[in-house]
Amino acid sequence: MRTTITIDDDVHGFVTNYARAKGISLSAALGELLRRAEGVGEPLPDIRRSPNGFPLFPPASGEAALTDKMVKKLEGEEFEPKSFA
């Protein structure tokens, strides 16, 4: 696919140097770098939405889900912040 893009000068310089070092075209270098970047980082969380559109985040691995009963119980308790000394 042929397309035109606008990139910052520093990005162009980086991709150009990468392409020269590898002996490949600028297009090939850009494609290679983007494919490598695609596999980097944490997987995105599985964020779902309730019927009214409220985002629902899954519990952390090994953690229990927060229920409405837990929230109602905590609403009646006094909150005491922890001191970080």
Walk me through the structure.
The longest helix is centred in the N-terminal third of the chain and has 14 residues, at 9-22. The protein is mainly alpha-helical and 85 residues long. Strand 1 and strand 2 (55-56) form a beta hairpin. 41% of the residues lie in helices and 5% in strands. The chain has a domain at 1-57. It is elongated and about 65 Å long. Helix 1 (9-22) crosses helix 2 (26-38). It is built from three helices and two strands. The chain has a two-stranded antiparallel sheet with strand order 1-2. The protein has helices spanning 9-22, 26-38, 68-75, and strands at 48-49, 55-56.
Principal-axes geometry comes out as: elongated
**Spatial strand sequence of the major β-sheet:** 1-2
Helical stretch tally? 3
- DSSP, total strands: 2
